[in-house]
Amino acid sequence: MNSSNGPIGLFDSGVGGLTVARAIARRLPKEDILYFGDTAHLPYGEKSPDSIRKFSLEIANHLIKKGAKIIVIACNSASAIAYEFLSENLDVPVFNVIDPIIQELEKYKSQNIGIWGTRATINSNVYQKKLKKSLPNAKVRSTATPLLVPLIEENQLNGNITESLIKYYLDKSEVNDVHHLVLACTHYPLIASQISKQLKSRVKLLRTPSIVAEHLEIELKKMQLLKKDNSSINHHFTVSDITPTFKKIGKIFFGAGITFEEENIWESNSI
Ligand code: DGL
Q: Atom 9 in ligand 1: which residue has the minimum CA distance?
């Protein structure tokens, strides 16, 4: 087990998980963050469960070797597919971005829930499985909305194309009368206000990053794992394949000051 003064290890399939990293940095400003974005292998939303589990374990082990005191799976697809596997195979606490949302839905006793996510997340039925016990009568309508990911990565956060695609998915998923719509993908918070505009006002959008950051603060306090020393704050961002596009998107997702390093943690013959 690494020291409580070690960084929070966070990973995602790419730079989308920076929405979660940013929420954690705001909520826990004294904590160090070690981020790994697997840009060489994205999108995880279109990968097989075996590949997602394999990549996730290798990345998590890498972060732990570098001193991470906990692992946060910032990616919804990896949270849906690899969380149990990582929890069983790692000796630091592992957090996912789904359980905090489940707790939020339980708090509201939500009976009519919409889920938007990648194919991997939606095909896993993870929300239905987790809600079965606590909200057995809840109606859960989940829809894969993968086209939103490349659109957001193209910085199309407003405008006609985004509006039309949101309308298309709203019609397809029939979520205009749900109580809660879960934005179960790292990228979607960036277009939350565009989605809200087209939804009936009583539909509450659940934005994963802020809910996860709040949950993490509570859990780290309980586990006495909040950073104790007052050393300077260190945020370190690495990706497995660096390109000008990822650098640009990183700024949209986290903020202007972000810089990336490239790190290939795989043997050259295993990619
Ligand atoms: N980070 C992924 C997620 O939250 C979205 C992008 C991808 O498919 O890799 O599910």
A: 43
Q: Ligand 1 pocket test: which of 11, 20, 118 has the largest number of ligand atoms within 8 Å of its C-beta?
A: 118
Question: Could you report the per-residue pLDDT of 8-27, keeping only the tens digit for each?
Answer: 999 999 999 999 999 999 99
Is residue 103 located within the same domain as residue 30?
Answer: no
Helix/strand/coil for 182: strand
- Is 68 considered catalytic here? no
Pick from 44, 116, 127 the residue to mutate for probing ligand 1's pocket: most ligand atoms within 8 Å of its CB. Answer: 44
Distance CA(142)–CA(113), nearest Å, equals: 8
> Would residue 185 show up in a list of annotated catalytic residues for this protein?
yes
3-state secondary structure 100-136: HHHHHHHHCCCCEEEEEECHHHHHHCHHHHHHHHHCC
Q: How do residues 159-210 score in pLDDT, each as one tens digit? A: 999 999 999 999 999 998 899 999 999 999 999 999 999 998 789 999 899 9
- 249 and 201 in a common domain: no
State the CATH number of the domain containing residue 153.
Answer: 3.40.50.1860
Whole-prediction pTM: 0.95
Domain residues for 146?
A: 99-208
